[in-house]
Write a structure and sequence with these properties.
This protein has about 80 residues and is an alpha+beta fold. It is globular.
Length: about 80
């Protein structure tokens, strides 16, 4: 899942070198924290959060296929 979020984020931003995805395993879910350059934050979130919702939907679909629960947090 981490690699999936990383590939999507790097395709969206101007500074792909500053994309960092941290994976944390909690009780019932995997938490992925996405950090990008401050200038790229808007590109990852999108108007009214549409791109962020889309990223979460794609990751959720991939996680469901593997019977896992994944939460994507954008920092």
């Amino acid at each position: 899942m981490k690699e999936l979020v990383e590939v999507i984020a790097k395709a969206l931003v101007d500074n792909p070198d500053e994309v960092v995805v941290t994976e944390t395993v909690k009780e019932k879910a995997i938490v992925l924290e996405l950090k990008v350059a401050p200038s790229d934050t808007g590109k990852v979130i999108g108007k009214q959060g549409r791109i962020a919702k889309s990223i979460r939907a794609v990751v959720k679909a991939a996680a469901t296929k593997e019977d896992k629960k994944v939460i994507v947090d954008i920092m």
